[in-house]
């Protein structure tokens, strides 16, 4: 009798040992799949844009590598003045875990980003003045809101083995003189490397391609605030979601920056506050509606900012000779 009871006890104990972790495992798995987000990590982000049903699916974003053209602009493409250069520095393809190279998609929620840390450069400056037909914007190319990652990335082997970018952002005079009343050109033009515009956060916008002509946002490691340095020139290849924070009455995004042809770029939301996709936009990644004249939009899919210049661009703000004396910014 006593032996029998002991055997029963062991059987029950054995079952409990086997069943409890199984049940827990199912609960945990369900919790994870219900959330549909990766485990929290200081190297990951979960934009609000990814949490709704509107706009592109953040887990299967189209990889932009094959959508660069140097011949003519096309919807969903980047019209680049510079052809592909496979020898340029960039990320190490076989270390990238968030791109599905078979399907040619990438998962923004699995991508790794540089977290904030002790790096603390000077505060960004931004001044905008209008004189006659010119909108002048001057910045020191550092974020006005002070949000920047812990550069240089070489402090983080996990990241630097994927993307060996050794750069550290530093202050850099950016001076733009945009036409105040830009005109649409019959022939849209290509976008160069370097600044194609500037955000209201004081940081330069670069087009969607990295030095190799591949999808920079998908491949290169940027900080969780959306930027990274080329040498020491900090820049965004897409519009950081947090600076899309002003809205028109119907919920349409406000202006988040200006492009080199003088046309504004608005944030991620179109009419009635609905998130924009490439579908909604023309070959240059812009449109006009209601009282708004021509304007570009940010999207969370390639080419992210603009596809081509709809107007006539000014020359590159960094390469341009410094006609004007540097201003005292402090
Ligand atoms: Zn870049
Ligand atoms: Zn719009």
Summarize the structure.
This protein is an alpha+beta fold and about 325 residues long.
Mean pLDDT: 88
Number of strands: 16
Uncertain stretches of 5 or more adjacent residues: 23-35, 319-330
Portion of residues in helices?
10-25%
Compressed to H and E, one letter per element, the order equals HEEEEEEEHEEEHEEEEEE
Bound molecules: zinc ion
Number of helices: 3
Any idea how many domains? 2
- Structural class determined from secondary elements: alpha+beta
Quaternary state of the chains = single chain
Q: In this structure, how is the largest beta sheet organized?
A: 8 strands, mixed
- Can you tell me the overall shape? globular
Q: Whole-Å distance between the termini? A: 90 Å
Radius of gyration: 24 Å
Strand content: 15-25%
Arrangement of strands in the largest sheet = 11-12-10-9-13-14-16-15
Question: How is this structure best described in words?
Answer:
- This protein has 330 residues and is of the alpha+beta class.
- The chain folds into two domains: 35 residues; 250 residues, no CATH class.
- The chain has three helices and 16 strands.
- The C terminus is likely disordered.
- The structure holds zinc ion (ZN) (2 copies).
- The site of one zinc ion (ZN) has 8 residues, from β11.
